[in-house]
Amino acid sequence: MTSMYDPTPADQFTFGLWTVGQTGRDPFGEATRPGFSPVQIVQELAKLGAYGVNLHDNDLVPINASAQERDRIVSEFRQALSDHGLAVPMATTNLFSDPAFKDGAFTSADARVRAYALQKTMLSMDLGAELGAHTYVFWGGREGTEVDASSKLLDSLAWFRDSLNFLADYSASQGYSYRFALEPKPNEPRGDIFFPTAGSMLGFIATLEHSERFGVNPEFAHDTMAGLNFTHAVAQVIDAGKLFHIDLNDQKMGRFDQDLRFGAENYKTAFFLVKLLEDSGYTGPKHFDAHALRTEDAAGVWAFARGCMRTYLILKEKARQFNEDSEIQAALAAYRIEDAALSELTHSFSAEKAQVLKAQTFDRAALGARGLGLEHLDQLTAELLLGVR
Ligand code: GCO
Ligand code: MN
Ligand code: MN
């Protein structure tokens, strides 16, 4: 029996090969499950109603594969994608696992590492394009420091900028359709990662040669780890016209990077995030960059994947109810006060309007005394989410 919360490809849900393929290994312990081959992942995700699968170069092709092996693996994978109707909307490069990248890739103080990172990324962009990807993500996992005595902060920013400018030109020279999505994270695995927040990415993007090709790939867990409000970060990215991709998962605040199932922890933030995405008309893929708990076997991995998608769809339905609930809408209408004359005065400057505004009298005491009804509004929201409205 299908329900309205069963995903279909039209919902544009995606998972990374590295997410459902994760074997439960963590810094303290070995794998607890065998994982799946890329072809098995394609089969299973298609059965669950996902739209696509994303990958790092080495999720599919081992770093030391021969050219022949590469071609065989890629053609087998392409066959599975076409057999099961799954897309590869996003590709990215693993610039963090190999020891060569231990002190950064594009921001390494070693020019040879920076050159190798560019070479590896171009090859990975070729692979992504071959698989039909239109979004290319840059997550600078190792781009950071523990030792600022290394004295490379300003140089690192310049090296990173040069690399992205180079790769945007490479993409254009190959005729690829890529838009680039930069993914901020404050720390882990480095002590400090460069560009820790969505806002810092936005500032940096403005300095790139082809800034129109670059946007942000914000991730729920990354802002939450740092105690920030992820929904606010996403709103700023949308406002800048830069939401090119999004990584959904969950996380307890202030902990290590947990990559929990979407909605596993912060129902309310997840709700406002889904509402923001849906109300804003975001039409890109919704990518779950999360993995099943280490306690799980194969069945638990697919329960995890299904859960991410169902929770999103349940919250999407709740957002629709919120927008149609007359009591909630009345509370919102009472909260917001519009004044056409004042808005006309304040929405853009003229010397004359400034004079009129300076002469205006405001009842400061009344403004301060007004109750905003936010307790009532928030309780209505809580009751909606808890299923009693
Ligand atoms: C992390 C990151 C990564 C990236 C991935 C795709 O915390 O490890 O979120 O999962 O998203 O490398 O770029
Ligand atoms: Mn992450
Ligand atoms: Mn991510």
Quick one: overall form? globular
Indicate the CATH class of the largest domain. Answer: Alpha Beta
Q: Looking at the chains present, what oligomeric state does this protein adopt?
A: single chain
Strand residue percentage: 5-15%
Could you give the count of β-strands? 10
InterPro entries: Xyl_isomerase-like_sf, Xyl_isomerase-like_TIM-brl, XylA_actinobac, Xylose_isomerase
Keywords: Carbohydrate metabolism, Cytoplasm, Isomerase, Magnesium, Metal-binding, Xylose metabolism
Cofactor: Mg(2+)
GO molecular function: xylose isomerase activity
Which features characterize this protein?
Xyl_isomerase-like_TIM-brl; TIM Barrel; binds D-gluconic acid; 389 residues; xylose metabolism; 16 helices; binds manganese (II) ion; 10 strands; eight-stranded parallel beta sheet; Xylose isomerase; alpha/beta; two-stranded antiparallel ribbon; Xylose_isomerase; 2 domains
